Amino acid sequence: MVQTISVLGSTGSIGRQTIAVAEHLGLRVRAITTNRNVKLAEEQARKFRPAMVGVTDESAARELRTALADTDIKVWSGEHALVEAAVISDNDAVVTAVSGAVGLKPTLEAIEKGRRICLANKETLVCAGEIVMRKAQECSAEIVPVDSEHSAIFQCLTGRRKGELKKILLTGSGGPFRGWTREQTKDVTPAQAIAHPNWSMGAKISVDSATMMNKGLEFIEAMHLFSVTPDDIEVLIHPESVIHSMVELVDGTVIAQLGVPDMELPIQYALTYPRRTESLSERLDFTKLTKGLTFQAPDFEKLPCLALAIRCARTGGTAPAVMNAANEVAVHLFLDGKIGYNDIYDYVIETVETLGVSPAHDLDTLIAADHAARETVRAIHSRKG
Question: Which of 2, 49, 191, 208 is disulfide-compatible with 93, CB 3.0–4.6 A?
Fold first, then answer.
């Protein structure tokens, strides 16, 4: 079990839950980061006394420096602050709870230091999965997933030989608009999209869960985490969110990981692995599952974002990075009320088709593809106005 951690994105949904788990486990928090939530970052800093706080927003960093002037806590600013927090000395693990491709560079830097990566930032593997996993192997750095689905798969596969796996069964609730047609979702508001029926998450990931792009990103992430092909993964809609994912073994045995929909459990397991300790999570009461557990195949016509993500997974190269970056920008445009819900997919597919696919041999190529995708979405929005 790790003893000291950095939490990238400590004021977000996963970050706040990580802080709660760290307090429960008695871990020392060496560094935390936020974008601009000065008030909560100050509260966390005063409580845990980390060596540093990273604030990516420059004006917010200046405000926090003033607020913490009576302490010896250093405040770093800009995106480089994420790297500083990730590689801070005397640290065992980094919880990457930031949202978006911004998590890629600090993750790679922490891997080079041999840190355990408790990975909650799925975009890291979506954008540069082959590079990240290769670097982790070279540096003997552990990557332990925090996403509930990938944690479930990780737990089901622990102690099994690679040749025993037949198929990964990746589950998803279907979000708040399960079964809705594109005609029905055209007037969906941001408030409706972030109201997930089972999970409490940040705004961006909640929208991704509604469009099922999140499941597509997890599909790509699972390919890299578990060294499988797209044909080895099947997506299942499981509205109850009790089974977090399953694996089918070559002899036909299916092993599932079950639990209440509570992110603190996979966060804790990533920090205590390979040990298990008492958690604060609610226990699953099977007697309350009176309506049973249901499963269905996804309707890809109603879930075009999921279909696109799987298509990009099969295409490879720069396609996943382009799709991910375009989705990030489009979702934020939607959350800001500048485009409609259905426009998210329209903007992303147009960007993917406009930019095409290139081989992704190095990080510079992927970063360039990411930037190009963001500019393309902005150009599409400017044109459509």
Answer: 2
